[in-house]
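Let's sit down with a protein and look at its sequence and fold side by side. Please make up or recall a protein chain and show it to me in full. Label the sequence line and the structure token line clearly, so we can match residues to local backbone shapes. Go ahead whenever you are ready, and we will take it from there.
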Amino acid sequence: MNNYCEPSRELSWRIWNYISRVYQYSGMRVSEVGLTNHLVFDIVDFSSRNNDIVEVFAWHSEKESIQGADIDLFIEQPGGGFQFYMLQAKVMNQKGRYSGIARWNTYAQYYKLIRAAGHKNAIPLYLLYNGATERSQLGAVEYGMAIAHARSICDFRKRQYDDDDNRKLFFDLLMQEALLKPFSDLFCQKGAPPFGTGPLLNLKEIHRGFPYRKVENSKRAERQQQQSEENEKELQEQEDSANRKGLAPCRIIIYQEGGNG
């Protein structure tokens, strides 16, 4: 069990309740980018109050990474080594549908995510933001942030491809297929991780340099950011370089109790 266990549950509850309230009003939308930023902030804020057991590195881009991941998440395991998860975020719409997850085709985002994860010894996951809708009746607050293996989503979309009457992807369908797990399972589950264990990385194998900047509350970090932003062309080159490397905009490293090394 990781120190971020209870905070991850509480954030999931808040997100479920927030989306549920927003979708009570017709015409309202929820931004997956905004929710992801809130998740990252919650982790950073938690770490600053708990002996810095988390490090967050970010680079800012207007484009989505070519690999399809929004967050690279590294969780230190009790026996040592870090499990690497590549997370792609999506939010359900007002009807409980994930319209941002494409129908089955070999160019779909889940294929990019699966291929990239295979090259990087990572586990590819969808991070799904949810609330109460007409097609999420099987849900509960712990599924405000849910995770699903990208391979399972890909396989399910392929099965749906031949069903003309059932090609839309809804929360309840994924629950019926037992494809969703609470995001908090990554931190709260005792024993084996929820999607098994892939090859573990040591800290030196986790890239934290260019173009990333460490997210921290300090005047020094502010000055560094201001200096970099003075050269817009340089920033564009950094963004293009990072996209070519397939880096996610955010990397989160969560250490076991006792702080980072």
